[in-house]
Amino acid sequence: MGISLPEEAPSQPLITDSGTLVTTDAATPVSMEVQGFEDGSVRIQAVIDEAVPVQELSYDLSLPAGAQLHQQPDGSVVVLADPVAIPVLEAEPLPEGDAALTELLPTVDEVDPTAVEAAIAEVQTESVGDPQDSAPADTVVLAAMPAPWAVDAAGTSLPTEYRVEDETVVQVVDTAGAEFPVVSDPWFIPLIPIALGAAARALAPAAVRAFAATTIRGGMAYTTRGGFSSFTAFKRAHGVRSGYEWHHIVTQASGRYKGWSNYAINHKNNLIQIPTRVHRNCVTLWMNSKGVKRFGASAASGEYMRDWVKRQSWQKQHQIGVALLRHCGVRL
């Protein structure tokens, strides 16, 4: 799968030292910054610098045979295909002699691929919603473009939406009354599980920015005051950044096991936004690994970390969760 830049963008890009592709030209009203990640996701920041009431930017996608674009009720766009299009999650060995990457991720033998696939599928449902009723029942999600956003130079959010035309996604931005330049930020995210070696390469070096509604410290106390009755209500109040996912430090599964209140589970002390690739390819892998004796956990041989953790006290679970985030490179 691939995505192309709008024809409004300059045709002669530059590559910065950090690897970002930049297209800018005084003769064109749109400039672009493109970041590609080893997990296959592509972030495109479009900067519009011309006072036109409505701007349309078209992104052409190259899709696998039989795949189709579908618009979701929340404004996002997903790529749907037959289940045979999804490769099996393979345990690719880590590069030999690379101690840093070996330390970052669990070993191949420790990971439960079935549990990882289930965890990623659960995140996919939370991130992009259920496919529209018009979509075939036997399809699966291969990729997604989260709901669009656009802001002007004053930081004001502007009305914007995607329009799907065959294999093209058009972002329509209403710039009436806006202060220029206007910025939009589409992110094309493949949702196919990737192999362990690829995950390690995508995460190294591990130093990623996170966002939270409050300062997060390990071992924060159980509280329901100021919490939300559901995860959906929390996200509605705090929003979701493009390319990021909210992560429960004390997991929802632990909350159900312990009978803890939803108001504690969906509390700003227990939720942090981290990049999608880190959430799925490091945090999820460790939680679904056997015999983990790190981060404050002490799972028995053959016991999954998630099962050991869920039996602990709230503060212990929170402390372990924060330690795992830091190990995966999340800056708190």
Explain the overall architecture.
The chain has 332 residues and is α+β, with helices and mostly antiparallel strands. The radius of gyration is 21 Å and the shape is elongated. The protein starts with a strand and ends with a strand. A hairpin with a 5-residue loop joins strand 7 (68-71) and strand 8 (77-81). The strands form four sheets. Strands 2, 3, 4, 5, 7, 8, 9, 10, 13 and 14 form a ten-stranded antiparallel beta sheet that branches. A four-stranded antiparallel beta sheet has the order 1-6-12-11, with no helix packed on it. The chain has a two-stranded parallel ribbon with strand order 15-18. The protein has helices spanning 99-104, 113-128, 196-203, 231-238, 252-258, 262-265, 276-287, 305-309, 314-327, and strands at 2-3, 14-15, 21-23, 30-36, 42-48, 54-62, 68-71, 77-81, 140-145, 150-151, 160-165, 168-174, 182-184, 187-190, 208-209, 244-248, 271-275, 330-331. The protein has two domains: 1-205, no CATH class; 206-332, no CATH class. The model is unreliable at 83-101, 124-138 and 192-207 (pLDDT under 50). It contains nine helices and 18 strands.
